Amino acid sequence: MQVMSVPPTAPSAVHAMQGLFTPQATEALLPWKALAAELEAVLQDGSVQVPPRIVMPLPQGGSLFCMPASDAQVAMTKLITFTPGNAATARPTIQGDVTIFDIATGQRQLIIDGPTVTARRTAAVSLLAALHHAPNPSGPLLIIGAGVQGKSHLEAFAVGAGTREVWVASRSLDSVRHLLDHAHALGLQAYAATDLAQAAAHCPNIVTCTSAQAVVLQHAPRADAFIAAVGAFTPQMVELAPSLCQHIARQGQVIVDTAEAVHEAGDLLQAGLDVQSFPTLAQSLARQRPRPAGPVLFKSCGWGGWDLAAARLAARMHRQPLHANDDPPLQEP
Q1: Are residues 154 and 99 in the same domain?
Q2: Distance between CA 203 and CA 210 in Å, rounded?
Q3: Digits of tens for pLDDT over the chain (333 positions)?
Q4: Distance (Å, rounded) from C-alpha 246 to C-alpha 121?
Q5: Beta bridge partners of 11
Q6: CA 258 to chain CA mean position, Å
Q7: Which site in 45, 149, 222, 241 is 20 to 30 Å from 23, CA atoms measured?
Q8: CA 280 from chain center: how many Å?
Q9: What CATH number did the domain enclosing 59 receive?
Q10: Contact call for residues 101 and 74 (beta carbons, < 8 A)
């Protein structure tokens, strides 16, 4: 199946190709503010159904993910592969598609790019959690991991939270330079974080989005810290030191994205914490508590409902042009 190359400013033009969207066109269907709002709407929609995702192990450490979900009008499934060995090559580690169907007719509406959906909905979930729970959501942001998720979180926080200062850490100096260049092109102050302890002490907001093969953050955070840990999504994966997770559980607040974290949140499980005792994002939003005084850890593992939110927004955006009050496009000069 050949993918048509379509400019991101004209997503409706792909209709003639049976709704098959390139990564760039998929991005145009998922503006950051609207996507964060759609994620919150999904949490409040009683018609949403999200069965447990299927994760099939593949040889050489890979996985095949099948994530279906539906509401009263839309059914979708995301089918992607995760191939960690690709991290050392030019090939992406996540590949696949999201297929969207109209429930009333059973007709396929759109096929959008799976890795783009994963990158944007994950960053938008972190943004949603930060807007409601971070003591200082617009403060300096430390991004650990300068790949696709690092770039998505940079854009999401710049647009959605008003972040203007970013620090970047990665094992790859080239990746750091590329992300810093992107941040500068977007008008942000951006710096390389060569000393993680110092950067964590300076930045109230931290995102860890690495391959989660080893601990990358172990320093006790500031009292007003918000950490979104997104890289580890299996019991064996880890980004945060057990002592760090235990410190936040004692002194602050831990929030998980969904109840499935009890089986998937490697950072918390390896810290010996009772994951079931922590509120989910839906529960924490429903309680409408004041912002916590201590540090906050938001543990994100992924959920088909987040993909459903992206599918709903993409289908609606395909029918309706971008409104003036939605995100302005992020364009580099």
Answers
A1: no
A2: 18
A3: 333 333 444 444 444 345 689 999 999 999 999 999 999 999 999 999 999 889 899 998 899 999 999 999 999 999 999 898 887 888 888 899 999 999 999 999 999 999 999 999 999 999 999 999 999 999 999 999 999 999 999 999 999 999 999 999 999 999 999 999 999 999 999 999 999 999 999 999 999 999 888 999 998 789 999 999 999 988 999 999 999 999 999 999 999 999 999 999 999 999 999 999 999 999 999 987 666 679 999 999 999 999 999 999 999 999 885 553 456 444 432
A4: 28
A5: none
A6: 14
A7: 45
A8: 16
A9: 3.30.1780.10
A10: yes
For 323, the token pair is 């409104």
Cα 130 → chain centroid: 12
**Host domain of residue 247:** 118-302
74 and 174 co-located in one domain: no
Residues 47 and 178 occupy one common structural domain: no
For residue 332, being part of any structural domain is answered with no
34 in any annotated domain: yes
Q: Is beta strand 108-113 parallel, antiparallel or unpaired with respect to 94-102?
A: antiparallel
Query: What CATH number does the domain containing 261 carry?
Result: 3.40.50.720
Q: Are 156 and 123 in contact (CB under 8 A)?
A: yes
Domain identity same for 179 and 238: yes
- Quote the CA–CA distance of 262 and 301 in Å, as a whole number: 10
Count of domains for the chain: 2
Place of tokens 């040889």: 59
Same domain, 135 and 198: yes
CB 315 within 8 A of CB 112: no
Query: Residues 111-115: contacts with CB within 8 Å, 24+ apart?
Result: 111/18, 111/19, 111/20, 111/21, 112/21, 112/25, 112/26, 112/29, 112/310, 112/311, 112/314, 113/21, 113/22, 113/23, 113/26, 114/78, 114/79, 114/80, 115/23, 115/80, 115/148
Query: What is the identity of the amino acid at 289?
Result: R
- Of 18, 12, 11, the closest CA to residue 111 belongs to 18
Tell me which residue has tokens 């938008």: 124
Copy the structure tokens of residue 184.
């500068």
